[in-house]
Write a structure and sequence with these properties.
single chain, mainly beta, Tachylectin-2, Chain A, six-stranded antiparallel sheet, 4 helices, globular
């Protein structure tokens, strides 16, 4: 585990050893379209002529899943398991993985975890550009006593703070790591769902030290949690949000000019754009609490669970970031879902995807905290490789 103050030296050392781009090379490093090397194209007209995009197969990425399992079992502490699993390319070329509720090791040989193990509400992990090497946990605080990157740190998972932050998606904008933060407060609901969203902020962090520089209030009118997905495309950062605490959740969309994620924003309506967040329209129903939207060969691929705690992942397609999103075909069933255990929160990872593929992840969890302590692998992410074609 690396304290935030030492992260800058680590970034510099790893960057030099890998001979990857210098930090000054780009404000937000370009990510190649997953179809770029397989006959796909980023030209919308040409891609339309080639036929609609298809997900031809979805296969569990056991190698990447096992890599995270092995990382969580490393000696000496650090990240043991977490949910969230957002990723973004840093100016150094490394990939930052942004997590929410995080358990820290060391983990026992049988994958159990002492109930005295440290716990934070958010954290980060650094990997190489292809995620074939998971390098280190980023957490403030002295060794053995990690703290949340943003907001308060609980004494343990059973004693909540009066408020805390869970990460949404992150992106590099104006040379800074910008991370959406969903503020939570305790609720009277039964565990593990005894929390309620109370607002959204934008955290600005130094992308080399991970030091928090500021927190900025973001819109929350209409009950939309903005920032489950951030996508840079066509001079805009597209900000996807989720509305709904009931059985059905709805996708919304806002946008900001590149370099201005902190505002002003425009919000998609039924017929255009408005500066009023209350005018945001529902673009699609039955989406998960988190999902991925990825530009692929002139189209936009949405991957999501159904609303609620579903095990079925669907794919939707659109010709523009604002939709309409159509299709919804079944692509994968997460095998971990079942009595006492659930799966949720799809995220897309184009920065580590090979040509002709898209890597996605989802989270796993247990209804009983004791089940996680007995087998912490129940809280590690799973990964899936989608094969794409026309």
């Amino acid at each position: 585990m690396v304290p935030a103050r030492r992260a800058v030296a680590l970034c510099a050392a790893v960057t030099a050893s890998l001979a990857i781009a210098s930090p000054a090379a780009a404000d937000s490093p370009a990510i190649t379209s997953p179809l770029a090397a397989t006959g796909g194209t980023t030209d919308t007209t040409a891609s339309a002529a080639a036929g609609p995009l298809r997900v031809v197969s979805a296969v569990a990425d056991t190698a990447l899943t096992q890599r995270w399992q092995e990382f969580g079992r490393r000696r000496g502490g650090g990240w043991a398991a977490a949910d969230g699993t957002y990723s973004t390319r840093l100016p150094s070329g490394l990939v930052a993985w942004l997590f929410n509720d995080t358990f820290f090791g060391p983990v026992n040989a049988d994958d159990s975890l002492p109930q005295s193990a440290p716990f934070t509400h958010n954290s980060a992990v650094l990997s190489t550009p292809d995620a074939k090497h998971l390098i280190t946990t980023i957490a403030p605080g002295p060794p053995g006593h990690p703290r949340s990157l943003v907001g308060p740190t609980p004494d343990n998972p059973t004693v909540p703070n009066d408020h805390w932050y869970w990460n949404g998606d992150g992106i590099v904008d104006r040379g800074k790591l910008q991370v959406i933060e969903f503020e939570q407060k305790p609720s009277d609901d039964p565990p593990p769902f005894n929390f309620a969203w109370s607002g959204t902020k934008l955290a600005t962090l130094n992308p080399y030290t991970f030091r928090l520089e500021k927190l900025t209030d973001l819109p929350s009118a209409g009950g939309v949690q903005w920032g489950t997905e951030l996508m840079s495309d066509g001079g805009y950062i597209w900000i996807y949000g989720v509305e709904g605490n009931g059985p059905t959740k709805y996708m919304h969309l806002a946008r900001a000019r590149v370099g201005h994620l902190d505002g002003p924003w425009e919000f998609r309506t039924d017929s255009g754009w408005t500066s009023d967040p209350a005018g945001s329209a529902r673009l699609l129903g039955n989406v998960g609490a988190s999902f991925g939207v990825t530009p692929v060969g002139g189209e936009y691929l949405l991957t999501t669970f159904d609303s609620g705690l579903s095990s079925v992942i669907h794919a939707y397609h659109a010709k523009s970031p604002a939709g309409p999103f159509t299709g919804g075909e079944f692509v994968y069933v997460a095998p971990e879902g079942g009595p006492g255990r659930f799966t949720y929160n799809v995220a897309a990872h184009p920065e580590i995807s090979r040509p002709g593929e898209l890597v996605i992840s989802y989270n796993t969890n247990a209804e009983k905290l004791s089940d996680l302590y007995a087998d912490i692998d129940r809280n590690r992410p799973r990964f899936v490789d989608l094969k794409l074609s026309r």
